[in-house]
């Protein structure tokens, strides 16, 4: 006499599957009508390129070879200054609310009258763009710590 | 829409005119957005721009009603503003801060439901 064989399926597995489906459905429903996009103007200078610039040793030509042509060339206090900049944009939309945050990232390379590199201003502002809909915060504690660390490591300021 | 973050008086309290150098300003506030010659010295400028815009289409629900959906039925009221905060540091030839100043124009950025009249009246 044949027996009907039942596949053993513990309750925990079916509950986990149901929970996964519920989470997926909620996620789809909640994120419907949302949009997140980002863009940038210009390329970020590489950290190794900036750190290769040595105060008093690197020449104007070497800076051009490393970073390319500057966006602006300034003449201030008898010094020639290369100005590089880029912009980072993040946009978020939540139903009918939309917000765009843009942060600029500037780099100034000063030159002495002899054509050697003087000070380099390369510390990113204590800001960063991240997706948000509400009011803007200056930075999170972690971000502040990371930026301060980056500033300490980059060195070579005016 | 915002461009960069605003600076408050507390953020620049460390600046002592005649003593603080550009490097110290940069260490605290980051690299300025603009650096330009001014007389015998230079100006370092930090900008914060805020733009706010708001609009309501009161005619949108008519699009759900078939006879009206095929004819123009938008009735939009909206308004906004753009404001720029500026923090300017004046430096001498040795890159030492001589003075600094704020310009607060960001409150000009605001949501305005009523599009008629002038923003100055509000």
Outline of the structure:
Chain A has 158 residues and is of the alpha+beta class.
Most strands sheet of chain A:
5 strands, antiparallel
CATH architecture of chain B: 2-Layer Sandwich
Number of helices of chain B: 2
Strand and helix order of chain A:
HEHHEEEEH
- What's the helical proportion of residues of chain A? 25-40%
Distance between the termini of chain B: 22 Å
Would you give the CATH topology of chain B?
Answer: Beta-lactamase Inhibitory Protein, Chain:B, domain 1
Q: Which percent bin holds the helix content of chain B? A: under 10%
The secondary-structure class of chain A comes to alpha+beta
Topology:
The complex is a heterodimer of chains A (158) and B (122).
Chain A (H helix, E strand, L loop, with lengths): L10 H21 L2 E8 L5 H5 L8 H8 L4 E5 L2 E16 L2 E15 L5 E5 L19 H14 L4
Antiparallel strand pairs in A: 1-3, 2-3, 3-4, 4-5
Chain B lengths: L1 E2 L18 H8 L4 E5 L2 E17 L8 H4 L6 E16 L5 E8 L18
Antiparallel strand pairs in B: 1-3, 2-3, 3-4, 4-5
Question: How is this structure best described in words?
Answer:
The complex is a heterodimer of chains A (158) and B (122). Chain A is an alpha+beta fold. Helices cover 30% and strands 31% of the residues of chain A. Chain A has helices at residues 11-31, 47-51, 60-67, 141-154, and strands at residues 34-41, 72-76, 79-94, 97-111, 117-121. Chain A is elongated and about 75 Å long. Residues 131-158 of chain A have low confidence and may be disordered. In chain B, strands 1, 2, 3, 4 and 5 form a five-stranded antiparallel sheet that branches. Chain B has 122 residues and is mainly β. Chain B has helices at residues 22-29, 66-69; strands at residues 2-3, 34-38, 41-57, 76-91, 97-104. In chain B, 10% of the residues lie in helices and 39% in strands. Chain B contains two helices and five strands, in the order E-H-E-E-H-E-E. Chain B has a single domain (9-109), classed as Beta-lactamase Inhibitory Protein, Chain:B, domain 1 (2-Layer Sandwich). The longest helix of chain B has 8 residues, at 22-29. Chain B is rod-shaped, with a radius of gyration of 22 Å. Chains A and B meet through strand 2, strand 3 and strand 4 of A and strand 1, helix 1, strand 2 and strand 3 of B.
């Amino acid at each position: 006499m044949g027996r009907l064989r039942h596949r053993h399926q513990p309750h925990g597995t079916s509950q986990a599957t149901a929970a996964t489906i519920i989470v997926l459905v909620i996620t789809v429903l909640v994120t419907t009508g949302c949009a997140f996009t980002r863009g940038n103007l210009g390329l970020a200078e590489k950290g190794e390129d900036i750190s290769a610039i040595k105060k008093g040793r690197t020449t104007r030509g070497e800076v051009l070879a490393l970073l390319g042509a500057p966006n602006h060339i300034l003449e201030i206090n008898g010094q020639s200054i290369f100005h590089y900049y880029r912009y980072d944009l993040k946009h978020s939309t939540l139903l009918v609310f939309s917000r765009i945050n843009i942060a600029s990232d500037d780099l100034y390379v000063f030159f002495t009258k002899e054509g050697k590199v003087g000070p380099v201003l390369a510390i990113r502002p204590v800001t960063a763009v991240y997706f948000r809909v509400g009011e803007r915060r200056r930075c999170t504690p972690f971000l502040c710590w990371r930026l301060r660390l980056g500033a300490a490591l980059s060195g070579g300021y005016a | 829409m915002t461009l960069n973050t605003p600076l408050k008086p507390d953020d620049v309290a460390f600046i002592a005119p005649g003593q603080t150098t550009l490097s110290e300003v940069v260490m605290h506030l980051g690299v300025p957005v603009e650096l330009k010659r001014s007389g015998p010295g230079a100006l370092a400028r930090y900008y914060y721009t805020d733009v706010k815009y708001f609009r309501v289409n009161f005619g949108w629900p008519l699009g759900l009603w078939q006879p009206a959906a095929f004819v123009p039925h938008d009735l939009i009221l909206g308004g906004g503003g753009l404001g720029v905060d500026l923090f300017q540091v004046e430096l001498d030839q040795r890159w030492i801060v001589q003075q600094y100043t704020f310009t607060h124009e960001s409150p000009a950025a605001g949501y305005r439901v009523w599009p008629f009249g002038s923003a100055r009246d509000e």
